[in-house]
Amino acid sequence: MSSNREAPAGPVRRVTLVAAPFVGGALVTGIAFLLFRNSLPDRVATHFTLDGTADGYSSPAAALGLYMLVFVVEAVGTIAAGFSARSAFTTTRSLTIFSIGLAAATAYILIAAMWTASGSDGHTPELPLFQLPVGVVVGAAAGAAAWLISRRRA
Question: What Rg value do the Cα atoms of the chain yield, rounded?
């Protein structure tokens, strides 16, 4: 009797599958930064209050570094979760799908923050509050698409 289930992925493959979405998200965010760099002010908003008002600023280069650090922290946390789980097969697939959703949501939010900063014209930038739920929807849609694609391959 044959099984459609593949053997669990090795450690290197698991790390690659789970980290790849964060590398992709960092790449997309970096490209967006290059597109926005000429319109960014000298001080870029890097932190916003719950009402969307900027309350933390950095230079554009430091902001890009912080954005990349967010992806590194998310990747390391997700990889650590993968190694602490019991079932390698289910966890690799689940964490890869989770990683795709989280990386997509993070990239969206960071690009929205850059877009807000680029249009601030020296005023205190305000990130519209609807951007956070939209980011969650973007992440959920990316995760759902990845789940559907993975189901078809299984």
Answer: 18
Q: Are 75 and 116 in contact (CB under 8 A)?
A: no
What's the rounded Cα separation, in Å, for the pair 77 and 59? 27
Q: What is the pLDDT of residues 4-49, one digit of tens each?
A: 455 556 888 888 999 999 999 999 999 999 999 999 888 888 888 8
- DSSP per-residue letters across 85-151: SS-HHHHHHHHHHHHHHHHHHHHHHHHHHHHHHHT-TTSPPB--TTHHHHHHHHHHHHHHHHHHHHH
DSSP 45: E
Please choose, from the candidates 33, 12, 8, the residue with its C-alpha nearest in 3D space to the C-alpha of residue 87: 8
Largest CA distance in the chain: 68
User: How many residues in total does the chain contain?
Assistant: 154
- State if pTM tops 0.70: yes
Binned at pLDDT 50, 70 and 90, residue 135 comes out as very high
CA distance 23 to 11: 18
Could you give the CA distance from residue 25 to residue 146 in angstroms, rounded to a whole number? Answer: 15
What number of CA atoms fall less than 13 Å from residue 152's CA on the CB side?
5
